[in-house]
């Protein structure tokens, strides 16, 4: 199969779809890999390293899309890429369709085969291709939150860990999934007091077992959320409904109950956000303030640490890329139910129910294509 790795063009997206190691594994099996010029340089991988691994380098993104049977990238295609996606072309990436009707319509129009990293799901309901980026984002959420709590950037002026004689900062984590647990771990390591909320008692029991005593758990409901936002300095939104829009756990009217300089980091923003006032921001312009509450809503947080993120991502995506390259998408998805669950749009038809529901679009079962 011919695989194309374009350079990411989303604002400050520094990751790349495959490491040179991933390219080597594909080319040694007889597949052809084209990498766009300088696609990996921000992740620390030069064109020469890709060539040594067996890739051919192409100058432009147009050339990569034109020649590839399968595109492997990191973030969803953005508007300049919409018309480059070809009919029957496999596009394997993070899509987060439910947060963008424009992207959904563009991919329907392209009649391509869209397989979303974030909905590939194993039998235990874990999301293997989302997990490493959620781990990165959860840990970064505390780094960024701690930074924006500083007074020069309009935060409350609180040091999360405190110092002797001064109470540590308080962190509220919404969701005890991968993002939430990694955020809680980082915040606890700094010495902050952490409260983590979830609707799953199984997850809360797990958190209670693995975290130190200054991480406390509570059942998530509106009453508890409204109570805690009044006293916590940093709020992390880490909820996820696979393939669907995130629920709005913090509404516009709740901001007035927060203290000036409170910081919200909405990690769920790439799925629409779990805070009603959230809107996607970029690493270039990461925050905005509403009612004296600082909102950090960067939709590609792991792009700020591209070496770590690219290696972590290729570690988990490569086995699936190999299956698609060696079997083709129909056989690979028929043989591997986890990969089949990543199918979102096939040749102009929505095959993932949550996308259909998000935009009131016709739905066709995957089985009709396999």
TrEMBL record:
<keyword id="KW-0547">Nucleotide-binding</keyword>
<feature type="binding site">
    <location>
        <position position="75"/>
    </location>
    <ligand>
        <name>substrate</name>
    </ligand>
</feature>
<feature type="binding site">
    <location>
        <begin position="298"/>
        <end position="301"/>
    </location>
    <ligand>
        <name>NAD(+)</name>
    </ligand>
</feature>
<dbReference type="Pfam" id="PF05222">
    <property type="entry name" value="AlaDh_PNT_N"/>
</dbReference>
<dbReference type="InterPro" id="IPR007698">
    <property type="entry name" value="AlaDH/PNT_NAD(H)-bd"/>
</dbReference>
<dbReference type="InterPro" id="IPR036291">
    <property type="entry name" value="NAD(P)-bd_dom_sf"/>
</dbReference>
<feature type="domain" description="Alanine dehydrogenase/pyridine nucleotide transhydrogenase NAD(H)-binding">
    <location>
        <begin position="149"/>
        <end position="297"/>
    </location>
</feature>
<feature type="domain" description="Alanine dehydrogenase/pyridine nucleotide transhydrogenase N-terminal">
    <location>
        <begin position="4"/>
        <end position="137"/>
    </location>
</feature>
<feature type="binding site">
    <location>
        <position position="220"/>
    </location>
    <ligand>
        <name>NAD(+)</name>
    </ligand>
</feature>
<dbReference type="InterPro" id="IPR007886">
    <property type="entry name" value="AlaDH/PNT_N"/>
</dbReference>
<feature type="binding site">
    <location>
        <begin position="239"/>
        <end position="240"/>
    </location>
    <ligand>
        <name>NAD(+)</name>
    </ligand>
</feature>
<feature type="binding site">
    <location>
        <position position="134"/>
    </location>
    <ligand>
        <name>NAD(+)</name>
    </ligand>
</feature>
<keyword id="KW-0560">Oxidoreductase</keyword>
<feature type="binding site">
    <location>
        <begin position="267"/>
        <end position="270"/>
    </location>
    <ligand>
        <name>NAD(+)</name>
    </ligand>
</feature>
<feature type="binding site">
    <location>
        <position position="15"/>
    </location>
    <ligand>
        <name>substrate</name>
    </ligand>
</feature>
<feature type="active site" description="Proton donor/acceptor">
    <location>
        <position position="270"/>
    </location>
</feature>
<feature type="binding site">
    <location>
        <position position="198"/>
    </location>
    <ligand>
        <name>NAD(+)</name>
    </ligand>
</feature>
<dbReference type="GO" id="GO:0000286">
    <property type="term" value="F:alanine dehydrogenase activity"/>
</dbReference>
<dbReference type="Pfam" id="PF01262">
    <property type="entry name" value="AlaDh_PNT_C"/>
</dbReference>
<dbReference type="InterPro" id="IPR008142">
    <property type="entry name" value="AlaDH/PNT_CS1"/>
</dbReference>
<feature type="binding site">
    <location>
        <position position="279"/>
    </location>
    <ligand>
        <name>NAD(+)</name>
    </ligand>
</feature>
<feature type="active site" description="Proton donor/acceptor">
    <location>
        <position position="96"/>
    </location>
</feature>
<dbReference type="InterPro" id="IPR008141">
    <property type="entry name" value="Ala_DH"/>
</dbReference>
<comment type="similarity">
    <text>Belongs to the AlaDH/PNT family.</text>
</comment>
<dbReference type="GO" id="GO:0005886">
    <property type="term" value="C:plasma membrane"/>
</dbReference>
<feature type="binding site">
    <location>
        <position position="203"/>
    </location>
    <ligand>
        <name>NAD(+)</name>
    </ligand>
</feature>
<protein>
    <recommendedName>
        <fullName>Alanine dehydrogenase</fullName>
        <ecNumber>1.4.1.1</ecNumber>
    </recommendedName>
</protein>
<dbReference type="GO" id="GO:0000166">
    <property type="term" value="F:nucleotide binding"/>
</dbReference>
<keyword id="KW-0520">NAD</keyword>
<dbReference type="GO" id="GO:0042853">
    <property type="term" value="P:L-alanine catabolic process"/>
</dbReference>
<dbReference type="InterPro" id="IPR008143">
    <property type="entry name" value="Ala_DH/PNT_CS2"/>
</dbReference>
């Amino acid at each position: 199969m011919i695989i194309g790795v374009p350079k990411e063009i989303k604002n400050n997206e520094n990751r790349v779809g495959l490491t040179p190691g991933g390219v080597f594994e594909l080319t040694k099996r007889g597949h052809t890999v084209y990498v766009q010029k300088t696609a990996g340089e921000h992740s620390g991988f030069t064109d020469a390293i890709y060539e040594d691994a067996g890739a051919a380098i192409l100058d432009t993104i147009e050339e990569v899309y034109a020649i590839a049977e399968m595109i492997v990238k990191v973030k969803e295609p953005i508007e300049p890429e919409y018309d480059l996606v070809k009919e029957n072309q496999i596009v394997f990436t993070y899509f987060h369709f439910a947060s963008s009707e424009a992207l959904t319509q563009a991919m329907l129009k392209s009649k391509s085969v869209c397989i979303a990293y974030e909905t590939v799901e194993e039998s235990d309901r874990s999301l293997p291709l989302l997990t490493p980026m959620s781990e990165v984002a959860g840990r970064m959420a505390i780094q960024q939150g701690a930074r924006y709590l500083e007074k020069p950037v309009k935060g409350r002026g609180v040091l999360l860990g405190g110092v002797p004689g001064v109470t540590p900062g308080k962190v509220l984590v919404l969701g005890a999934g991968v993002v939430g647990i990694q955020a809680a771990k980082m915040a606890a390591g700094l010495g902050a007091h952490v409260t983590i909320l979830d609707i799953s008692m199984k997850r809360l029991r797990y958190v209670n077992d693995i975290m130190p005593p200054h991480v406390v758990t509570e059942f998530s409901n509106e009453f508890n959320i409204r109570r805690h936002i009044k006293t916590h300095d940093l709020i992390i939104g880490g909820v996820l409904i696979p393939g669907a829009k995130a629920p709005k756990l913090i509404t516009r009217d709740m901001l007035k109950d927060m203290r000036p300089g409170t910081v919200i980091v909405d990690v769920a923003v790439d799925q629409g956000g779990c805070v009603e006032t959230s809107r996607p921001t970029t690493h270039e312009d990461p925050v905005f303030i509403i009612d004296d509450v600082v909102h950090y809503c960067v939709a590609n947080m792991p792009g700020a640490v591209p070496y770590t993120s690219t290696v972590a991502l290729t570690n988990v995506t490569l086995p699936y890329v190999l299956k698609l390259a060696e079997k083709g998408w129909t056989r690979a998805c028929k043989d591997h139910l986890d990969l089949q669950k990543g199918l979102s749009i096939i040749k102009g038809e929505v095959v993932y129910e949550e996308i259909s529901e998000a935009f009131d679009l016709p739905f066709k079962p995957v089985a009709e294509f396999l």
